[in-house]
Amino acid sequence: MEMVPDQSDREFVLTPKSFNIIRQLLWQLDEVRPEPLIQLGWNTETRDFLMRLARSMPGALGPESRARIIIVPEEIFDPMPQGRTTAAAGRIDPTGDIVRYVPEYIANIWPALLDAALHALGDSEALYRTGCPADDIRDALAEFQDITQQGATGGMPERVPVKHPMGRITPNNSTEQGALDSIKSHPDRGEEVPVVMGIMNSFMNDGWVRMEYVEEAVIIRYLYHPRTGIYSSFEFMDRE
Questions:
Q1: Angle between helical axes of 16-27 and 134-144 (0-180°, round to 10)
Q2: Do 168 and 92 meet the contact criterion of CB atoms below 8 Å apart?
Q3: Alpha helix (H) ranges present in 16-164?
Q4: How far is CA 62 from the centre of its chain?
Q5: Could you give the number of structural domains in the chain?
């Protein structure tokens, strides 16, 4: 039976080379520190779904095959086609392609999570862990960014735009050092900010929220736990 996605679905296709890189980097999300991922929407639910997706994927694609990622508006538990009444019962469609389903709210943060993982690993460690040169990884990620674009219904809430979702922990000058000292002395001066796709305080089971403090040209983001009053992970964010 041929797969027939719902009309509300949209599709993204990965070539064998890009598929291998995305799959390898997907596994590394569990190997980097979580704070930069959390501000992008990383939580237990997102992690569990992406790990199920990684485990469901074959080790490699044939040279003529493709990975078809069907992005759906509803929440789903299983990335396999059997979980959809409009999908084929098998794992592989008649063309030899593999087909996986991903909810839109995860698809729209997936590229940013992988980019943050690469940034955290660095080029040498990424090569060691994935077997893929950093330039090839960046090329695959550039192609993969398109998964968030056509037909997306969600988006980034209003916030100060920055170059990269993963910040610096070391101040570049005395102005940044002064702003850091100020917010560490009075962390309540920051304002809570939403994360990608509107995932608010529930994005961390332990109750952490994302905070932002802006002083002149300096942007500092950090984590706050309202129940315990603990502040952590202060980072400088570079403006776009």
A1: 100
A2: no
A3: 16-27, 35-38, 44-56, 104-107, 110-130, 134-144
A4: 27
A5: 2
Which of helix, strand or coil describes residue 215? strand
**H or E segment and range at residue 177:** helix 174-185
Contacts of 212 (CB under 8 A, 6+ apart): 159, 160, 190, 191, 192, 193, 219, 220, 221
Q: Using 50, 70 and 90 to split pLDDT, how confident is the model at 240? A: low
Instruction: Tell whether 48 is covered by a domain.
Output: yes
Contact 137, 130 (CB under 8 A): yes
Same domain, 72 and 136: yes
Domain range for 47 is 10-148
Query: Do residues 68 and 11 make contact, with C-beta atoms less than 8 angstroms apart?
Result: yes
CA pair distance 188, 111, nearest whole angstrom: 32
Mean pLDDT of the chain: 75
The residues, any chain, with a CB within 8 Å of residue 124's CB and separated by 6 or more, are none
pLDDT(164) > 60: no
Only one residue has tokens 């961390």, namely: 204
One domain, residues 137 and 30: yes
Residue predicted with more confidence, 3 or 147? 147
Looking at the fold, whether 106 and 206 belong to one and the same domain comes out as no
- The dihedral of CA 200, 178, 167, 36: what is its sign? negative
Q: Are residues 106 and 188 in the same domain?
A: no
Residues counted in the chain: 240
- Residue 205 and residue 119 in one domain: no
Rounded CA gap, 55 and 220, in Å?
36
- The predicted model gives 208-231 an average pLDDT of 83
Phi, psi angle pair for 206, to nearest 5°: -85, -5
